[in-house]
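Re: Re: token formats

Sure, here are both.
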Amino acid sequence: MPTETLRVHLVRHGQSTWNLAHRIQGQTVHPDLTPLGRTQAAAAAQTLMRRVDGRVVLWSSDLVRAARTAELIGRALRVPVQYDEALREQHLGTIEGRTVDQLHPEPTPPGEHVSEVRWAGGESTQDVAARFRRFAARELRATSPRVRDLVIVSHGDTIRVARAVLTARTHRDVQWDPIENGSVHTVEVPRQ
């Protein structure tokens, strides 16, 4: 039976080797899950098994840490994983690969909003919102009315931005609260 809303479950990947080393990942492809990260991914799968009801569609970022998390979730839910670059983490330019203690604060350029600055030559929060908005518009239209749950495995900053987009807020209204590795954040959205 068709539903008027779709539950979107945003899952942050499990702990990666670079999370453990406090290294800035951004869109660096190769960091894999740690043993703890695999445990967190399995726990996220168990959470989703309790939350989903019926048919489910599973999408993931194609970066290794998210893809490995999605594979574990897909096996638990018995659904295939689809991958999309639109679900990648915010590209962080020249600071990718550095450790957190190597970073230094920089002032926001005069006349610009912090969410619209492409720090270190990467993407702005506005850029991430635009690519997630395109993904969401396409998938909310394409997902069968019989599907009640859409699972998206992604990354901390992208999930923060996705929650803003899915709740009709702008890139300037992103809530920068902690998004723990392996956490599941559910947003109910109207079908388009």
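Second one below.
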Amino acid sequence: MDHIVTVQDAVTAFAPWMEPTDAELDAIEQEMPVILADVDLLDAQIVTLGRTPSELDGRRIRRARRRALAARVALVNRAAGTSLPGGAA
């Protein structure tokens, strides 16, 4: 009879001492508008999976794409603004 055992590393992969650092949490917080905009875009696309998209569905998807793109641009602009010390262009 073979015994089934678990791999200890897999069981304890998320031990309490492996919590995210403050820097990682700050990075997630900065990216949250992009994440939420992407979720809205996915929601709009999922609605149309089982049917032919109507004009209203098309508008919703376009609006969600614009919001997702705007959120990404804002994130990149914030990152670019903080990474140029001394006002260098």
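The chain has a mean pLDDT of 84. The helical segments are 8-11, 22-47, 55-82.
- S.
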